[in-house]
Amino acid sequence: MDLLVATRNAHKTREIRQILGPGFAVSDLCSHEIPEVHESGKSFEENATLKAVAISKYFPGLVVADDSGLEVDALGGAPGVFSARYAGHEASDKQNIQKLLGALARIEPRAKRSARFRCVIALARRGELLGTFEGIVEGTITEQARGLRGFGYDPIFIPCGFQQTFAGLPAEVKNRISHRAKAIRLLAANLAPLKTRG
Ligand code: IMP
User: Please, which pLDDT band fits residue 77 given cuts at 50, 70 and 90?
Assistant: First the structure.
């Protein structure tokens, strides 16, 4: 069964392909001429749905789109859907991290540092939403960046039950417990019946 992942991020495509396994011919936007979709939603679910539904009008098979980010409780859930551009449209991961640590330090030195990564994956076909799947990983924000792996806010996020940040943990561990992995596994469970029917 053909499945298009609405991303140009080869890492995301590989992760989805690995978890879904054989039975799905997974491709992404790098191999299709499809217009960009503006992420104008107020929630991860809205953005993922917007992307999946819009792109599924240009592609005959199943389309999945994801949106994800970090929610920090002491910042009222920020950066949330603005995670990628928290410190500005062209901001680097380092600038986003600096802004977040600065904002937390200004509130109150011992402010609650609980946070979570959230990922929502939307599944659509021919302009119709078939479902959304959410994965969450709870954790805390460190005082300083630690670890060299990963991307985004990985160096300042310690998942519950671990001592190291996502950037300090081996990739296999992160990919097992991450918000994205959880959402993909839920998607996989819901796609399995389609595969056996297809
Ligand atoms: P998107 O879902 O690819 O648009 O991700 C939005 C932003 O959220 C990224 O640019 C990162 O800043 C942040 N983010 C999402 N998932 C992760 C993660 O697994 N680690 C670190 N940062 C993440």
Answer: very high
- Interval 18-51: pLDDT, tens: 888 888 999 999 998 888 888 899 999 999 999 9
| Cα 152 to ligand 1 centre (Å) | 6
Active-site residue among 28, 66, 67, 154? Answer: 67
Residue 29 alpha carbon to ligand 1 centre in Å: 18
On whether the pTM is more than 0.85, the answer is yes
Ligand 1, residue 174: give the atom nearest the CA: 19
CATH of the domain at 26: 3.90.950.10
Inter-residue contact 135 to 186 (CB < 8 Å): yes
Domain count, the chain: 1
Is residue 67 annotated as part of the catalytic site, yes or no? yes
Reported in sequence order, the residue ranges of 30-178 that DSSP labels E, i.e. its strands, are 62-72, 114-125, 128-141, 157-159
Question: Is the Cβ–Cβ distance between 68 and 118 less than 8 Å?
Answer: yes
Which range of residues forms the domain containing residue 24?
Answer: 2-195
Q: Which residue among 43, 71, 153, 169 is best mutated to probe the pocket of ligand 1, counting the most ligand atoms within 8 A of its Cβ?
A: 153
